Amino acid sequence: MATTLPDAAALSRQLIAAAENHATPQEMAALMSQMDLLFAAHQDLVYATCLRFTHEPELAIELAQDTFLLAYERLSTFRGESRFGTWLVSIARFHCLNALRKRRDLLSHDGVLEATDPTRSVLNRLRRQEREELLRQTASAVLNAEEQAAVHLRYTEQLSILRIEELLKLESASGARGLLQRARRKLGRELRRRLT
Length: 196
What we know:
single chain; mainly alpha; 79% helix
């Protein structure tokens, strides 16, 4: 029998209120138990995200665990505007990028990085991740929620226009195309502004 997951935004508010109102240990334990259920339901997603960045299972496990700690610390910032899993994945992405950047800087500082083919591949992947990160930051700055969702579904999830129309409850496929076109135009203008 499937377990119904608690509403993440409501649980976040309850945990904050409980902490502020000095809830009993039993009340806090009950809320934390619900939080554990939420985290457990998303652990594979977070691990897969970390593994995509690191390509190292042990490091991915470590970064996934860190992600859940960061998510718990930042729980008050979750407003329920996106799905809880999406919010966790964004924390995992930022954390992985930061960890890889620190690791790269450490290797470079120690003189370990040489111009070998595998290293170039890693550096190219890091550069690509940095470009993707710039694109994500720009998207969150200039696109509305519907445009962000459409861009994510099309380019990250690689869904068809028809599927995007269905998921976003748009009236037609041309509505989805128009939404993506507006989003691309906004992104292009903002990226040109930031990079010049």
